[in-house]
Amino acid sequence: MGLLTCIDGGEVLKKGYIYAIISAIFFGTAGIFVKLAYKTGIDSISLLIIQYIIAVFLMFTIAFLKDRKKLYVSKKELFSMAVLGAVGNTLMTVFYYKAFEHLQVAMVTMLLFTYPIMVFIYSAIFENEKIQFKKMVAIMLAFIGCVFTLNTFSGEVKYSIRGLVFGILSAVFYAFMNLYTEKKLEKADALTINAYSTLFSLITLFFIRSPEFLLGDYIKFESLIYIIILAVLCEIIPLTLLYTAIQDIGALKVSVIGNLEIPTAMIVSFMFLRESISMMQILGAILIVYAVYLIRGQR
């Protein structure tokens, strides 16, 4: 019996690692489909609204068919999901997609993945977490990595200040999402959290852009193809794999593996969009990944 338990446990761990890797790779490809969708003439808010409509419909359908009881949540949980969606998810994705209008895919992805640094700073200041030497080194490495990523020493300004601000703000609200979920929704079902928070995010976006545009001929068929891909391949599937991996191997290991999004974004943007990547940016990406690993590896 003990041997069988070890074998089963090993299989679960193996499955968890595989799911986490696939999830990171799928997430890392999101930028290329956003860029391709922009080329069809659609703007970021319209793209997000349609993406969320598709994602919300599919997630609630899956949750209803899988276990409809999990869709019943308390008023307190519903309020927390509303805050998570309306504030965190909405602002994170809006700024994230806006950044793609001004910066390369790889650069936006790298800026987003400075969010663990922000989580650490918050914990150190507001949660009175002890600042260890390794964590201080990690912050310095992350800062240097960001400098390298932005080609600061190249002698030429190759980035948009507006895009840079959007990218950093997306990281700020991504950090908020992680902290808020950990504190307010630690016992809720993952798919339920995703479904409701996305729904509230969609409702919030309707205050920014009237849904009347959906009735016109503004949306091209080509745009719709990319949006469906974003909703299914870059949101629903990777999130499902992510939550399953967390259950199998834990959030810490999954978060470390999640940094595969950075090299994935760099590779796909180079292959499909022909975006140039310098050795300095590659070094910056390596430093950011290592810095995030150091921080997340600390208790």
Automatic annotation (TrEMBL):
Xref: Pfam families: EamA (PF00892)
Main location: membrane
Keyword Protein biosynthesis (UniProt): no
InterPro entries, sorted: AA-Vitamin_Transporters, EamA_dom
Domain of life: Bacteria
Domain called EamA: residue spans: 15-150, 162-295
Keywords, ordered alphabetically: Membrane, Transmembrane, Transmembrane helix
Annotated Gene Ontology cellular component terms: membrane
Signal peptide interval: none
Family: Belongs to the EamA transporter family.
Name of the featured protein: EamA family transporter
Organism of provenance: Clostridium thailandense
